[in-house]
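Hi Prof. W.,

I finally got the Elongation factor P prediction working! I wasn't sure whether to trim anything, so I left the full sequence exactly as given:
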Amino acid sequence: MLAKDLKTGTVFKHNEAPHILETVTVQSPSARGGNTLYKFRARNLVTKQKADLVCKGTDNLEDADFQKREVTLMYTDAESVHLLDSEDYNQYSIAATDVENEMKYVAEGLEGLIALIYDGECVGLQVPATVELTISQTDPGVKGNSATGRTKPATLETGCSIQVPEYLKEGEKIKVDTRTHEFLGRA
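And this is what came out:
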């Protein structure tokens, strides 16, 4: 796959190990004829070490050899997240610290949760691009502020905080983009 096509959450092979892409920064050339550079911050799925890469848009990165399995959340404890394979009912565990960013968007009954399996072990978790969550706490809106573009902080049912428009109130279901951590609309 080309470096310019990579997005946050993509898994690729680097130094003979699978890495998951965490951040992408694009640096445009300042001179005519210069190449656009893509700066990647990735995490090794096996050793959990961070790696920084700089690539041109036309550089080719190798796909990682792993399985994607649809799973459901069974339960979480202090150290681990426990998942159940939807097809063959295998159980997988992964350290809670390894998937803390993904778990911000995982509510009970979430469909479309994907476990990344490498050598029979769960090494990562992918959440859907958009999820529906309920607002559990936010300040009340001020009457007459529905037409403005102002936002206020809101805490979702999973404990995640995002900015939402002022007219939303507690108990409403909203759509959230898990890649950009932004409010998309009412559910």
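The mean pLDDT is 86. Does that look reasonable to you?

Thanks,
D.
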